[in-house]
Amino acid sequence: xASYLQVGNISKSYGDHILFxxxxxxxxxxxxxxxxxxxxxxxxxxxxxxAGKDAPDSGxxxxxxxxxxxxxxxxxxxxxxxxxLMEELITRNxxxxxxxxEYRAASGSGDKKRLGKAVLExxxxxxxNIEQRIKKMLTSLKLNDPEQKMGHLSGGEVKRAAxxxxxxxxxxxxxxxxxxxxxxxxxxxxxxxxxxxxxxxxFMVTHDRYFLDRxxxxxxxxxxxxxxxxxxxxxxxxxxxxxxxxxMLAGADKARNLFRRELEWxxxxxxxxxxxxxxxxxxFHELKERTQVSFDEKKVNINIKASxxxxxxxxxxxLSYNYGERCMLRDFTYHFSRYEKxxxxxxxxxxxxxxxxxxxxxLAPVSGEIEQGETVRFGYYRQGGMSFNPQDTVFDIVHDxxxxxxxxxxxxxxxxxxxNYFLFPPSMHYVKVERLSGGEKRRLYLLxxxxxxxxxxxxxxxxxxxxIMTLNVLEDYLQDFAGCLxxxxxxxxxxxxxxxxxxxxxxxxxxxxxxxxxxxxxEYMKSLTEPEPKSQKIKTRQVPGNTVKPAKLTYKEQKRKExxxxxxxxxxxxxxxxxxxxxACTIPAGELTxxxxxxxxxxxxxxxxxxxxxxxxxx
Length: 619
Prior knowledge:
- By secondary structure, the chain is of the alpha/beta class.
- Helices cover 43% and strands 20% of the residues.
- It has helices at 43-50, 85-92, 94-107, 112-124, 130-140, 155-168, 185-197, 209-215, 234-266, 270-274, 278-291, 352-359, 394-399, 415-421, 438-450, 468-479, 492-498, 518-529, 555-584, 589-617, and strands at residues 3-14, 17-28, 32-36, 61-64, 70-73, 173-177, 201-205, 218-223, 226-231, 314-323, 326-335, 341-346, 367-372, 378-381, 404-406, 412-414, 456-460, 484-488, 501-507, 510-515.
- A 6-stranded mixed sheet has the order 5-6-7-3-8-9, with helices on both faces.
- It starts with a strand and ends with a helix.
């Protein structure tokens, strides 16, 4: 396998904060790698360096194999709000966009040689079919209006558009920063299948553990500025990581024992040391540094008490809600029980957020009623709920909510102590919010929700931007949460681990209660849409040795099939003749332009006729 990327001894720091120090790694053709690290450790910074959007500190090297194509999916895609979806995606496909721009310039230049070269480049990149390819990709990603302005798209639609732009480039090396954020489960599964089958080499940051397992074959961990490599899936990573930490602790214990013996020697009288080698004194100081390294793993400590919850929680009776002429909720009746954990799934725009806002009383139903128990105290983690003043400090934000926080054991601690539990040490208490990473802001937001001691938690996409380590701790806390839990999430692993059953929003205001795990529901839905096995179909295609006779086509189908075959043959001949003309470049400039336009039309027509022929053949 060819070496696609060689990274040698790169470092990056901001002031005294070292993100990574002298790290090196090699990525070969076909590798599919996931990068794991706590928030604020430099994951996005490393991706930006590889993509050429940032630079390492002085020294080190980032070398890609010559002539391979590279595509980068940023966590927050930047786009031109005035461009249509079609225009934006053509622009993002840089090779085709440049070839198309050159072709248009060559067409008006009168230079036959230049035009012929431009036509051949369009042919090589399949540029004539770029619009058809874009429309097909948009259909797969449920973006049905190519002429819609980018500025009118929702956050989830923008992310899907960015993914379409990435995949259409068909690049050799893909760099992805949290590709599953803001995507629904169906789109995540589409992307999962696409990347599994793709020959592209892949380097990505993701918190989605099912996605990671099904796409990647190697995991890189960035820990305390160093990089560690693990072959295998997420479970293998956890096991090997635990083994690595145990070995490091054993090595540290051995170093401390040796240090105690050397310390006795170094404290001996000067006379005793004069005849001894200088190298031993230097080795002592190196040993001292090794013993002072801390191997304690920094974890979020979610140790918060939920307020007492009575027997009456929330009772919904015949609840309905309309948004304009659209029915978002229809005759919904349900009585929530104590300690119940419910997952909410459904496509974007079917009413999930509306339902949550009805539950907490921000919206009033058009009919039906909601009864809320007196002891219910909501904690609502909203997907877009962070509204911090960027000039406020971390301490300002939590101090404005409360001065003390009640822990699970009933003990009360001041907020500056509580911040430490969420990995905000004293050195960060007076850091302004604008300087925090995306994951650190999310962790701070989660802290502000939980410190109010809610007993009915509503979490809307809580996994976005949180690292895997924090998610593991959050999952452990929520499993033992002494209250009710409502979760909207695209993260199947997170949902499988926590919820007892699902509210499935099917559209037109209908909610179905599904008992089972999220992954089981996804498999059930796939089974409903999968085609019947070919052996069960009445009509079968002719297979050598098959004794079952294929069903005959109708007279109309047979006639249409023969017409298509004639059309396809004629178009193939015309395409061949046009290719010979364009390669020769001996015809006048005006005719050359017409020929180059015509070949694009012929290729599009060929694709259409072939699809129609296949549909009849498979009937």
